[in-house]
Amino acid sequence: MTVFRDPWGIPHIRASSLGDLAFEQGQVTARDRAWQLEIERLRGEGRTAELLGPAGVEWDVFARRTRLEAIAQTAWSRLDTHTRDFLAAYVDGVNTAFDEGATGVELEALGASPGAWQPWTPLAVFQVQHVLFGSFPSKLFHARARDVLGEDADLFRTEGLAGGSNAYAVGGGRTTSGAPLVAGDPHRVFEAPNVYLQVRLACTDSLHGFDVVGLTFPGVPGVQHFGHAGSVAWAVTNAVADYQDLHPLSPSESVTRETQTIVVRDAAPVQIDVLSTARGPVVLGDPSDGTALVLQTPAHDLGDLGFGALLPLLRSRTVADVDAALEHWVEPVNNVVIADSAGRVLHRVAGVVPVRSDAGDWAGWVSGLPRTEVAPDGAFVTANERGGAAYDVLGRDFAPPFRADRIRELLSAAPALDATSAAEVLADVQQTQLAGLLDLVPAELRPAWGGAMDGSPGAAWFAGLRERVVDAICAAPQLSPLREPSPHGPLFEPWSSLPGRVAASLHVLVEHGTPFGIDLAPVVRECAAELATEHARASWPERHRFHPLHALEQFGLPHERTSPSTPLAGDGDTVRAASWLPGTGVCVRGSVARYAWDLADRSHSRWVVPLGISGDPSDPHHADQHATWACGGTLPLVTDWAQLTEETPVSITHRDLDPVADLDLLHGWVTEPRAVYWGMLDKPREEVGEIYAWIQDQPHLAAYVLQIDGLPVGLFQTWDPGVDELGEFYDREPGDLGVHLFLADTAIRAGHTMEVTCYIRDTLFDRPEVARLVVEPDAANTASIDLFRRVGFVDGPQVDLPNKVAQFAFLQP
């Protein structure tokens, strides 16, 4: 088996058997996203508090009460043997990478190591991504709103935070090649690292071989929602189906009770009761006071998470193959667009939707979910909207039609498409949702504006107007109870936020005219008049910045942000979705990938994600796709194996520095601006040579050149604290050895910083006389300090030295 990387570090994995392929996918994912895999595993097991302390308790209570791990185990046990073997091989790859030292900076900072994965862990991770993706969190808000507002609560009926996406397929009659195209972009919460991971999986087995590129959830093998298998491609959007119910716990309902203990780091353990009924788990409330709510989902009813679709999807060759594979799909319920190189284009809804009796009881599953055959000169667009009367069987809450209508308008006006122009459709930032709001603004108060949510003054004005109108509506006394935090806790606050709900349904409120008894016409006029007296506002993109949520941030814990805070054009219901979060200057939800699959020639396809493939902020592929994504662009899909770089283990070595032979190299390094802390920026070549000749002559000093595959990448020096004057500035111990480290800014080292540093650590600890390593970087050199911490050094004192303030740190084997 072999792993290759393209210019963006995206792994292309090739193996002769399915098991080897899955194993390597697990290994590669663990190396690229170790922290993400660990936190998602703990979420799935309801054990985040073991790592994060009290901040993890709320999630762990929820995860255990919803029985995420138990459902994953049940679903795994019911899978066919081939799929179980596929999952087991992937998990073996993850565990092997962890055993070999794969980790993340977050884990190192917490003093933790990744834990062992179980064969069912990928199913639990998949549930973590989707348990709050369905309808029940919004049902909590609507029930509360109905208690406050009565029937007026229906004015909030909209997709809310259920999830979104754009996807479309066009027949060959609409393309330059004569073959279909599939394009789209999923919309989810921005995360760092990204929720989706690009990958290529090629199995050369002569009987069951395949070669699929696509996007996967880190921690889940295969390619699920978006893939191109060469002769067939598919993409999904959320169908916004109502497939989850909350039922009050009936007094006559049989309940199984299990007491579980949540271990909490640096705090006392927490004991909870996990209650289950035949309909599902009790997830909220208390049976003793009649507030208990039972969550019913297809996954619980069927003991199935749809993983039976994974292998058939990889092995698909035609639309019919993908269609058949999706018969295994359970939840979330998705719109799927599929096209193949033979010219067939199909839309279908995949998943399981319950049939409900008049009393709300489940009585089987809806048959005949919507599906559409698309003509060769036709197109099918899905953007979470109600796709006609056939969608009545799915539910009643769908996204507004604005994104879908705009895509159809752009496709109708476009000449024949190729993959590049197909992806460009997804970059559109025209705001069409709130024409009714603009109609309420007097002409003399409305600036000229074409409607694009970009850096124009008109977009800044519109954003300011909308913000004021939303604030005015939220301030209405009749809505006061809905301004209170969610009664179900912080976990459900995003679905309960009144400003968020008002903003999402503003087009409905404007159309109504007097929602909740508020006459909007004078409110809008007053807001526009106030806005006219303001000085120039910052541009919309500047006030609407990319803000991915790191897991630590999601748990309310301190986190030093490393992701770029990029200005973003677009808006919540523009095609280039970038949702507005009222009361903030950040954007936390939008397009988490963008792609265009060409069925004539896969190598002409395009894709991109925010940030990049690696979860390590020091990796060159951590954010190397981000600038392209942020401006609405895409990157070429590399499919030619000859253009890829084979990933092989590097050879790290060192040798004694030669002050004469290495002088040019050495002088170039220590006079780089990044070597400022070495204090030699202004030293001439000859003086640098004299300094290092003297160092190499001292019995208590030594200098070495670091090498990767025989090429120089840095320098490290050792010093004896028992002799060197530096030892006088801290409490020396027997067996101490001091270390200085300089790493060159060279492409050879890219991605191997930790390996090189760990090599030095291990090499020096191989010396029997060494009991502790000592470093003393400049206190201002935060990059070096962070690197040493990640290797395991523990901070000691800060000391004023003659030429710097030093941060001493120590490491024992």
Could you describe the 3D structure shown?
This protein is of the alpha+beta class and 813 residues long. The chain folds into four domains: 33-131 and 245-296, Penicillin Amidohydrolase, domain 1 (Orthogonal Bundle), CATH 1.10.439; 163-243 and 303-425 and 591-643, Aminohydrolase, N-terminal nucleophile (Ntn) domain (Glutamine Phosphoribosylpyrophosphate, subunit 1, domain 1, 4-Layer Sandwich); 435-570, Penicillin amidase (Acylase) alpha subunit, N-terminal domain (Orthogonal Bundle), CATH 1.10.1400.10; 652-811, Aminopeptidase (3-Layer(aba) Sandwich), CATH 3.40.630. 30% of the residues lie in helices and 21% in strands. The chain has a ten-stranded mixed beta sheet with strand order 19-16-15-9-8-7-6-2-1-28, covered by helices on one side. Strands 3, 4, 20, 24, 25, 26 and 27 form a seven-stranded antiparallel beta sheet that branches. The model has no long low-confidence stretch (mean pLDDT 93).
Sum this structure up briefly.
The protein has about 800 residues and is an alpha+beta fold.
Q: CATH H-level name of the largest domain... which superfamily?
A: Aminohydrolase, N-terminal nucleophile (Ntn) domain
Strand content: 15-25%
**CATH topology annotation of the largest domain:** Glutamine Phosphoribosylpyrophosphate, subunit 1, domain 1
Which strand order do you get reading across the main beta sheet? 19-16-15-9-8-7-6-2-1-28
What tags apply to this protein structure?
seven-stranded antiparallel sheet, 30% helix, Glutamine Phosphoribosylpyrophosphate, subunit 1, domain 1, 26 helices, alpha+beta, globular, Penicillin amidase (Acylase) alpha subunit, N-terminal domain, Penicillin Amidohydrolase, domain 1, 813 residues, 4 domains, ten-stranded mixed sheet
